[in-house]
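To illustrate the input format used throughout this study, we show a single complete record. The first block contains the structure-token representation of the backbone; no residue identities are included at this stage. The design step must infer an amino acid for every position from geometry alone.
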């Protein structure tokens, strides 16, 4: 597969290091038409496609690496109830996940299937429909501790589609459930196949907002607003038999699109929220050698939880620190300080971003 040269160039420049194991680099800002972009896919000619989520037009958009819209394809026989994700199979079909279900009340969940966009000569097409319901949902909505029937992520593997749920349970359980569907038109009961425990310190940090599988079909990446999870070593479709490595972004944003473009490189996008986002990023999984080299840089924060101050240990000189709310609002910024006063912050969870002469890292902490 040919990848646009600008993406390759961006992935080669280590602009941001996250968790010493991936690089995330901004490629461009997207057209303001795509304020609510959600999902990414690559067609047979290596063109990038995305969509807007629920309530927007039933359109998929081809974009270039300058963020401009190159082409639109209108789905004539569908509305955008709550489109959330895009994926593709080895034959180039595109699948559109109309399964956003914030309140866990929908009974019209479906996936749209269209040909590879390179084979669509005009600007519109009819889709086939894969209608489904979850085998273990009997109430709409279910009880608060069972609210795990929203979804914003799926992949295609071995003639089936696998949906990863966006957990909205209260109290938060930390699991994403995995449901299996055929990839052909029809009406089905989605079979619960597996689950992954991602963590439960804070709901917003451990919800899955997109998924992608590499071409070798032996690695899966999941993204959320802050974490990116790398799943390897699984057997067949027994995903929980593998190893999950969490990587961190340098800040929270509404990341809702992720797609492999090679076995160690991806593209990612986020929505526009709080005057931030609506961008396309390159993501690079670092080699073992790169990880070892970067582990010479050590930053740590303590105590956590904290009451009055956060202390920073770093092998390199601290240039700046920023503290963000869990929704990405900047609440504090200091320069050259190793002790950060947090006494004026309200109790809750925050992100502290530490800039040194040699790296940038982010940490989650709790203010008591």
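Output of the design step:
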């Amino acid at each position: 597969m040919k990848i646009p040269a600008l993406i390759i160039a961006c992935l080669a420049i280590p602009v941001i290091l996250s968790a010493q194991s991936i690089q995330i680099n901004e490629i461009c800002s997207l057209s303001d038409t795509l304020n609510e972009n959600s999902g990414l896919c690559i067609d047979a000619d290596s063109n990038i496609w995305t969509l807007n989520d629920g309530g927007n037009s039933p359109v998929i958009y081809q974009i270039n690496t300058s963020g401009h819209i190159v082409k639109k394809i209108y789905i004539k026989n569908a509305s955008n109830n709550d489109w959330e994700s895009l994926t593709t199979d080895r034959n180039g079909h595109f699948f559109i996940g109309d399964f956003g279900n914030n309140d866990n009340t929908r009974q019209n969940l479906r996936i749209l299937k269209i040909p590879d966009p390179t084979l669509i000569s005009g600007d519109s097409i009819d889709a086939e429909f894969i209608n489904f319901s979850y085998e273990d949902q009997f109430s709409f909505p279910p009880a608060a501790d069972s609210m795990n029937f929203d979804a914003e992520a799926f992949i295609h593997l071995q003639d089936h589609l696998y949906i990863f749920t966006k957990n909205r349970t209260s109290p938060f359980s930390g699991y994403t459930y995995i449901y299996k569907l055929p990839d052909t038109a029809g009406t089905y009961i989605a079979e619960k196949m597996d689950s992954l425990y991602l963590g439960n310190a804070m709901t917003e940090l451990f919800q899955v907002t997109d998924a992608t599988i590499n071409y070798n079909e032996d690695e899966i990446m999941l993204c959320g607003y802050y974490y990116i999870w790398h799943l390897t070593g699984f057997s067949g479709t027994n995903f929980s038999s593998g190893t999950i490595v969490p990587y961190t972004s340098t800040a929270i944003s509404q990341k809702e699109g992720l797609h492999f473009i090679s076995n160690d490189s991806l593209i990612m996008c986020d929505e526009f929220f709080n005057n931030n986002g609506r961008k396309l990023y390159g993501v690079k999984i670092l080699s073992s050698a790169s990880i070892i080299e970067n582990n010479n840089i050590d930053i740590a924060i303590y105590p956590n939880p904290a009451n009055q101050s956060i202390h920073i240990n770093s092998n390199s000189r601290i240039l700046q620190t920023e503290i963000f709310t869990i929704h990405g609002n900047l609440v504090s910024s200091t320069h050259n300080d190793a002790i950060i006063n947090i006494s004026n912050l309200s109790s809750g969870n925050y992100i502290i971003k530490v800039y040194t002469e040699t790296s940038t890292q982010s940490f989650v902490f709790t203010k008591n």
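Structural context for interpreting the output: Residues 299-367 form a domain with the Immunoglobulin-like fold (CATH 2.60.40.3080). The two ends are 50 Å apart (CA to CA).
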